[in-house]
Design a protein that fits this description.
Largest interface: A-B, 18 and 25 residues
Number of helices of chain B: 19
Shape of chain B: globular
Distance between the termini of chain B: 18 Å
Order of helices and strands of chain A: EEEEHEHEHEHEHHEHEHE
Shape of chain A: globular
Distance between the termini of chain A: 45 Å
Radius of gyration of chain A: 19 Å
Oligomer: heterodimer
Largest sheet of chain A: 9 strands, mixed
CATH class of the largest domain in chain A: Alpha Beta
Strand content of chain B: 5-15%
Number of helices of chain A: 8
Strand content of chain A: 15-25%
Largest sheet of chain B: 5 strands, mixed
Number of strands of chain A: 11
Number of domains of chain B: 3
Helix content of chain B: 40-55%
CATH architecture of the largest domain in chain A: Alpha-Beta Barrel
CATH topology of the largest domain in chain A: TIM Barrel
CATH superfamily of the largest domain in chain A: Aldolase class I
Structural class of chain A: alpha/beta
Chain lengths: 288, 511
């Protein structure tokens, strides 16, 4: 059997926004959606070694070796110029991790951690790695009290969820829109699988949190909000629902011309959802 | 008129100071017009060049820098000097404390330590309802901020989970006052999870309390125990610290040819000179000032033999970066393993030097090493062993980089972690961070949550909205030159010093 490798764009040792408590977060590279509102667009695609970024690097940290773009983290000063010039929303600075590499990171930071969260990109595009990693954590005496979470866009099919859920403690799931045409416009994909995933995860007791991105004039219509309330109520009105407010931070391209979601409007919608019976609506702590 | 008289006059006429602030600065000027305790030439030169520093404590030390009374004495026995009977009710106990605080000096002439309040008050609370306890402590808290307006004044609660500690933390988070500063003493064997959670939630609310790691502190002290005063000075109860001197490690590194020269010659030289400075100041306090003949000693609030000397250092970050450059290495303090290890080695050498030096008139015959939080004017030097502000790595990496220092600083390490406000929705993350830090050997933990109005600067609290007002009045001052006398008067009113000051940080009058 081949040992699975993960293509990782970033590791955080401290995150308080990716599940319960402090979490080590692996951001995996590559996504099966292409949302214009993405605030990490450089995590969307895998590098195709076109080399456009190499001459742009001011410190010479990028070179081409045998047709492949190679990144030297010791020289890199994290200016992110390479991400700005990438024509396909990829990232030349990714690192390959095997399961033991991640276990070593967890050992090193264990006293600070409540758990690990795999995010992205879209985490589940590297499902084999997640299963191998979570299985290793669950069977490691020193690590098994860490909770294992996935942050997902919900596009994974039902059968695939079944393979990872036995070793997963919880999933944070994004719903981008209820109107399917709107969903396609916002993500390039249909929402059928996403809504099915939410129901499946809820039924399995693994839906830790639903997330909904409010975009003025797009996903904040009264119809969308009503469907959101109906959907959550049909699961359980106490399901944690995190409202995210669209901001320009990190965004590239067309969506920069879209208006941002302001705090009073977010609060108003939160209040509407609460009066519709939802008891666990969380609003952003910060608007940047 | 002499220069000195001109300064006195300037203080009395400064429209930006309240009358109590004027009185304080006048007394400081008067003290500093006296000759300094006698220093040898080499020590005087090092002090003049500010390689070593006396924190501008004054020329004639007539009271210890930090006094940590055992306030249980006045509550249990009363005070002959103050004509107080033993306290029998909560009202009497709080009233006795309020009186007692006015008779406890410190470097700022205000008390820096107001007691381990739950230990002191709990036994008077049996017949007091929760509601009454809340009301009485809230008034007490308001009194402290308004009457003793010093950001360094420090209360302690914990490690037990009790009504007084819980109520104080609740009130403190509600009122969000600058004073008093607050430490929760945490002990996993004694403190409940609930009160630890309450402390963490309170940090998210108002950046207080500071949390002290009791299992690391307690073994260093005896049955009297310790208290945490000012900004994170851990000192013997029923005593305190005579003085705080400090070495500017950046200046020591600048005077060294390379790392070897630093360790072999230059650092040992300045370690010795800072000891001589400390000894001269302690000698004046103990043998000339008459302080220990006062009623605080006679009545047993404090004991002459329980005063340590705090041996401080600062600018570790600049020192390490300076030495790294001299060795042709680019790795920066806080971010590079070699740089961090060099820092740890310096701390170890300092610790061993302080442990090895016998000191007269010092608790247990030795000084205590301290990572010192800084003055408001430190010329680009970072407090203590901290990582320079603005370049800190993520909180976990931050703690990992500094943890090894903590074992070497028994009288306290002033360290602040800045957390972004997303922590608000996830207090469990803060709890885990504190637990992680303590498991790695952190002696104490302080955090700023970045959207709090109340934040720590070098360890004391300020309100950001006060600073904002200051900035605004800076603008008004510039406008005054164009807008004429009327606006000028208004501008000067706006220039007033804030009501609650950080007196330790403003040890001199500067116009």
């Amino acid at each position: 059997m081949n040992l699975p490798l993960a293509t990782v764009s970033k590791v955080l040792k401290f995150s308080c926004v990716d599940g319960p408590g402090n979490r080590l977060v692996l951001f995996l590279q590559g996504c099966n959606f292409a949302c214009p509102t993405c605030h990490n667009p450089h995590t969307m695609k895998l590098c195709n070694d076109c080399g456009d970024c190499v001459p742009e690097c001011p410190t010479g940290a990028l070179t081409i070796v045998q047709g492949k773009v190679v990144h030297d983290p010791n020289i890199c000063d994290q200016c992110d110029r390479c991400l700005d010039v990438c024509p396909i929303n990829a990232n030349p600075k990714v690192t390959q991790y095997n399961v033991d590499d991640v276990l070593a990171l967890l050992y090193q930071n264990k006293p600070f951690l409540n758990g690990i969260t795999i995010s992205g990109g879209e985490a589940t595009t590297q499902l084999k790695f997640i299963i191998a990693l979570f299985t290793a954590i669950k069977t490691d005496e020193k690590l098994k009290d860490l909770t294992c979470f996935i942050d997902s866009n919900g596009y994974l099919p039902e059968a695939a969820w079944k393979t990872v859920l036995p070793v997963t403690d919880g999933v944070m799931l994004d719903i981008k829109a209820f109107d399917n045409t709107l969903h396609s416009l916002l993500t390039t994909r249909s929402n059928q699988r996403v809504l099915a995933s939410a129901k499946q995860l809820f039924a399995a007791g693994k839906l830790h949190e639903l997330r909904y991105l409010l975009i003025p004039g797009r996903t904040d219509s009264s119809q969308e909000i009503k469907e959101l309330a109906d959907f959550v109520r049909a699961l359980d009105s106490a399901t944690p629902l995190r409202l995210n407010a669209f901001q320009h931070h990190g965004v590239k391209g067309e969506a920069l011309t879209w208006p941002t979601m302001k705090e009073p409007d977010t609060e108003r919608i939160a209040a509407e959802l609460r009066s519709a019976g939802l008891t666990n609506v969380v609003v952003p702590a910060v608007y940047i | 008129m002499s220069e000195l008289l001109k300064r006195f006059k300037g203080i009395t006429e400064d429209p930006g100071l309240s009358f109590t602030q004027k009185a304080r600065y006048l007394s400081l000027e008067a003290e500093n017009s006296l000759p300094y305790p006698e220093l040898d030439e080499e020590t005087a030169k090092a002090l003049e060049e500010r390689v070593i520093c006396d924190m501008y404590e004054g020329h004639a030390p007539f009271k210890p820098r930090y006094v940590m009374p055992d306030y249980s004495v006045v509550l249990e026995k009363g005070s002959t000097f103050l004509e107080l009977d033993p306290a029998t009710t909560l009202d009497e106990a709080i009233n006795s404390l309020m009186i007692a605080y006015h008779h406890v000096p410190s470097v700022t002439n205000m008390p820096v330590f107001i007691g381990r309040l739950d230990n002191l008050l709990l036994r008077f609370c049996d017949d007091v309802s929760d509601e009454d306890l809340y009301k009485k402590l809230k008034l007490f808290w308001r009194y402290l901020d308004r009457v003793l307006p010093d950001a360094f004044m420090h209360a302690n609660v914990g490690p037990t989970d009790n009504r007084v500690a819980r109520t104080i933390m609740r009130i403190d988070a509600e009122l969000k006052q600058i004073a008093p500063n607050l430490t929760f003493i945490w002990d996993p064997e004694v403190s409940s999870d609930e009160i630890f959670s309450q402390a963490c939630e309170s940090i998210i609310e108002c950046s207080k309390p500071h949390i002290a790691n009791n299992p690391l502190h307690q073994p260093l002290f005896d049955e009297y125990g310790y208290g945490v005063a000012s900004c994170y000075n851990v000192l013997p109860l029923c005593g305190g610290a005579s003085t705080l001197t400090r070495i500017n490690l950046r200046e020591v590194a600048r005077r060294s040819k390379d790392t070897a020269d630093f360790f072999e010659n230059v650092l040992p030289k300045y370690i010795d000179l800072n000891f001589r400075l400390t000894e001269a100041r302690i000698d004046h306090l103990f043998n000339k000032s008459g302080f220990f003949e006062g009623f605080l000693v006679k009545e047993g609030w404090i004991s002459r033999d329980r005063f340590t000397a705090m041996y401080g250092i600062f600018a570790m970050a600049q020192c390490v970066d300076e030495l790294q450059a001299k060795e042709g290495r680019s790795g920066k303090y806080g971010h590079d393993e070699t740089a961090n290890q060099l820092g740890h080695r310096i701390s170890k050498v300092l610790f061993e030097a302080v442990e090895a030096r016998p000191m007269e008139n010092c608790w247990r015959g030795k000084a205590m090493l301290h990572s010192q939080a800084g003055l408001s004017d430190d010329d680009g030097c970072t407090p203590g062993v901290r990582i320079p502000y603005g370049s800190e790595p993520d909180p976990v990496t931050h703690v990992q980089a500094l943890a090894e220092h903590h074992a070497f600083y028994p009288s306290g390490v002033s360290e602040i972690l800045t957390l972004d406000e997303t922590i608000e929705n996830n207090p469990a993350a803060l709890e885990q961070l504190v637990k992680g830090a303590f498991s790695l050997g952190f002696r104490e933990f302080s955090a700023n949550v970045s959207n709090n109005d109340l934040v720590r600067i070098t360890g004391y609290m300020v309100r950001l909205s006060d600073i904002e007002k200051f900035k605004e009045c800076g603008g008004s001052r510039i406008n005054t030159t164009v807008l004429g006398a009327e606006a000028a008067d208004k501008g000067k009113i706006l220039e007033r010093a804030p009501r609650v000051m950080s007196h330790e940080l403003a040890p001199r009058y500067s116009q």
